Amino acid sequence: MTEKIQTGHVMHSSHIRKDKSQIVINIITYILVTIFCIMCIMPFWMIVASSFATEDSVRRSGFTLWPTEVSTYSYELLFRSPDQMIGAYIVTICLTLAGTLVGLFIIAMTGYALQRKDFPLRNGIMFYIYFTSLFSAGLVPFYLLIVQYLNLRDSYFAILLPLLMSPWLIVLMKNFVKAIPHEITESGKIDGAGDFRIFYSLILPNLKPALATIGLFLALSYWNEWYYSSLFLTTKVEYRPLQYHLYNVINKVASLKNSVAGSNVVITDLPGETLKMATAVVATGPIILLYPFVQKYFVAGLTVGAVKG
Amino acid sequence: MMREPAICENKDRNRFQTRQGMTHRIERKGVSGLQNTAQQKVVNYRKPSVGRTLVQNRTLIFMCLPAILFFFVFSYLPMPGAYIAFTNFQYNKGIFASPFVGLKNFQFLFSSGQLGLLLKNTVLYNLAFIILGNILQLAFAIMLNEVASKGYKKTAQSIMFLPYFISDVLVSLLVYNLINYDFGFISHLVRNLGGEMPKVYQNAGAWPFIIVLVHLWKSTGYGTVVYFAAITGMDSSMMEAAQIDGANAWQRIRYITLPTLKPTVIILFLFAIGGILKGNFGLFYNLVGNNSMLFKTTDIIETYVYRSMMNSFNFSQSSAVGLFQSVVGFFIVLGANAFVKHLDPDYALF
Amino acid sequence: MKKLLAVFLTLAMLLSIMPAVAESAIDTSEHVKIVYLVTGDKPTNRTDEVLAKINELLTEKINAELEFRWIEWTDWQTQYNLALATQSGDIDLIGTATDWLDAWPNSQKGAFMPLSEDMLKTYAPMTWESVSEAHWNLCKYNGEIYLIPEDNYAQWTNHGFMYRGDWAKEAGLENGVHSWEDLGKYFAWVKENKPDVVPWDANGNGSSYSPQMAGGWQTSHTGNIAIEGFPVAIFYGESKENPYTLSRYYLEGDELVNFAKEMKAWADAGYWRADVLNYTGDVVAEMEEGKTGAHQHHTQTWTTERTTMERKQPGSDLGFFWFGEEAGNLISLNITHGAMAIAAQSKNPERALMVYDLMRNDPEIYHLMQYGFEGDMYTVDENGLFSRPDGFEDSTDGVSFNFWWGRNDNLEYKNAQLDWDAITKLYDVYNQVKIDYPYGQYIYDNSMVGPMMDSLSNVYNTYMPRIVFGMNDDPEALVAEFRQALQDAGIEMVMAEIQSQMDAVYAK
Known about the structure:
The complex is a heterotrimer of chains A (309), B (350) and C (508).
Chain A: H1 20-51, H2 55-61, H3 73-78, H4 82-115, H5 122-134, H6 139-149, H7 157-160, H8 167-178, H9 182-190, H10 195-203, H11 208-224, H12 227-232, H13 242-258, H14 273-295, H15 304-308
Helix pairs in contact in A: 1-14, 4-8, 4-11, 8-11, 9-10, 11-14, 13-14
Chain B: H1 8-11, H2 19-27, H3 31-44, H4 50-56, H5 58-76, H6 94-97, H7 107-110, H8 115-146, H9 150-161, H10 168-179, H11 185-192, H12 207-232, H13 236-244, H14 249-273, H15 281-288, H16 295-298, H17 301-309, H18 315-343
Chain C: H1 2-23, E1 32-39, H2 47-62, E2 64-71, H3 76-85, E3 93-96, H4 103-108, H5 117-123, H6 125-130, H7 133-137, E4 140-141, E5 144-145, E6 148-149, E7 159-164, H8 165-170, H9 180-193, H10 209-221, E8 225-226, E9 236-237, H11 255-269, H12 283-288, E10 294-298, H13 299-312, E11 318-322, E12 339-342, H14 349-361, H15 363-371, E13 379-380, E14 385-387, H16 394-397, E15 414-415, H17 420-433, H18 450-468, H19 475-489, H20 491-506
Parallel strand pairs in C: 1-2, 1-3, 14-15
Antiparallel strand pairs in C: 3-12, 4-5, 6-12, 7-10, 7-11, 8-9, 13-14
Helix pairs in contact in C: 10-18, 11-19, 14-15, 18-19
């Protein structure tokens, strides 16, 4: 490839003379966004604060911005068997990394192929993929597929595989790739490159924001997943993914309190509100750091001018 | 972006040619090239055979193969199992040998007399979520893009994302702590200011607002990311040109940013509309619970089904409901997509 | 003579071998794993240790071993039914119950294996002997036995209200609370004299209070008796004397209106919070802290809670007002409230039955399973009461088999910590007034009126919480609306269908 595509930056508006409209927009933005941010962070702050409060103080005065009585009991409870917690974290991190990398690559590849106007099969394949987001056979057939036909019960692949991609992500990716000028593909073809080579060497490097976005969404779906874990990973599996592990901690008592079964079981260590808070903090933990990390990939793409020249 | 004339689609793809030959071919696409091919179109253009198409596009097809395989295994293979919605599922006979009961499993939805209300609520809420949600996300993305301070941008984006991580159970707990009549945070505030706190949990009219607000709060951060990515991927030279030409901020947004985001907005809308009959069970069930005073304005298909089948677990029936929601959504999307395609095929979903 | 003796001896030897030969007709040469499906979270205590010991014994005796398949509490209803629906020989023993685990609907759907008399006699002889024929008849569907009942275990799970005896005395109720009227007085006193306390801080979110409260008033003020097995709790029999006629309590009559009115009065008086229907707090914890004065649950819970309350709120003297007390209206627990079934696709049903037989009847295995290692995890005193060593914590030191499907009073040790005086006193009262559950032979068939039953379920769950917690302006109007909604949902047709099903079984 002889030509290098220049990547430009979105010019900061401050470079050009600031006109009144810009200032107005800035003011409006700052006000609205800040209000919204306060609305977002306050509840979260309350949750963190409450997780460090004693159960009594929460019951008495509800959720406050600062715990009136401090206690780390809920966290102690959660980490009582630390190897369980650590194991859960490791499993989840591995699943997230592996799934995101593999899934992202496949999604990007597919998204590129499907937006190529010279690809006659694209509408058919798109429909084939999209159709699955509308119709699903339901729980029992899917369960039978995974457990009986694919024999994946108690295997981490039962979590990894079904989450690799989704129609929404593929459609989204296709949309992002469309924004890349077709000239790039053309020039690649002129140089005699095959479609995959074009994709890999020319398109991917310019897809940073898209890859970051879709990668983020994919990672989040792995991180938050508990449903497949509850279906396919029985107690034979030593370390289950984080969200499911935490759900268990809370639901154990919630279910027992309401059902007849509760008559038979001795309930100790009643988790209360503070435990729910601590669980939320622990569950979210590392993934919050992912978004800022991903943000730096939101850089502007190429400028068409460079290609045409 | 140039659009290739359709006639040339397949003719250009001859990879067995040498580099020179290929270049040569494209060069010919000057004036005479087009004329040539136009003439040839009349004479000898015919649609290539299936085999030819497959071979010519094989790399692109291979690139789609993992996805095709994935959906075949995880979505299409189990699909015949949807038959379960039409049977009285007997565990010892399996899905296909169970007795066929036709539409009986759908009956409970239709004979309840509630279906109208449920559909209305489900659809209206989803429309509010989609439309208001997208407007808000768009607005935030554009606004934040205009702002100069990188630090502010990044911090704001991260903070806006936080509510997404809070589970529906916790959200309902937070809401309860805010507005419950006896001990709520807002109740205390109102009383301290001398006012009278309304009994929000007994007032059905307040809840559409509350639920929509909560949903927007929870999902805006997540949705904005898509638009951010679209904006940053935008061609910056047009922006620069516009600024040099003296366009002010509003004009830039209106004539450049928005049109660039148009395809994204439409695609997201089309996609969302297929699920217009599917409600967010977790959100509604946790916020409302079994407080029937609020059902008139907050009952959606999923919560109704849950309440009806709470003590009589039935796989066939739940499958039937899902099928119903899917079928209706499917026809709606077909219609919407056809409509969009009619206006501009570029924006259609398929 | 010698010859005769020889013949005689030989014959005697042969005869003595014979029974042994017949006994070992059961072939246990193959070592088999029996998978036991049970609800509960994976235990973090010493269960695995105890299981290893039990498996040693099982291998010795019948060359089998037990393996758990836990259905954890997260989303347990879906998981449990899914496990039954998609079984393929991967489970053998299934713990089930007619009241909360849908034993009969699952039998009808073919989840369980029919157990012939011969099978039971051969492979679970001790159990076969201990369950009477009358009881076996209550475990049949279409003439086949599907469930092995837990019928030799004293358990009371009838609902009522726990209340503080000390506060009741101060309120002027010398003998405690023994009627709804007393309860009202109790709440009024608490509201008046304990300003920081919500008399009954009910967590109304979730619908479990509706059938208990509504049914509680109903059984206290009429002779109606509850029929199990329906998705909606509005089907009651008329009375002890006339149990096989359906009661029309929910369709007509004043008593339901009285209930609605009383509950509204209580709501207005502030006996529970204004937004009770969305409140998800922990009533038991509050009661233990002295922040609330009552908890609505059943006898079994009360037996353990009484001890806990004495420890946390000394002198509280937790009493129990049982629903139906005023009318002496009490039914004993259905014998299939806990039952063991064999999976329809099980590959080793014979061995599974043998394992169950030992679990239920073999003292060594039973005690290991229920209590753990003797001496190490518990000690038994001369009265047959067991105590745990100091510092014993069930979540780390105990054993959890969740074996609620065949507990055996012959082998049970009573917990020394419980207040057996108070408990026995209550059980005596129960035993005097109770009648046996009269509907054991009736299994509801949903096929004719399924959709209508779902509508009824929806109507009930829409109106009843509001009636129970007095969330309305005009209770009489609300009840009328409720009754009309029931009519619109087709209750007359459903009742006619159920009545005819019951007549088919009981009308002689």
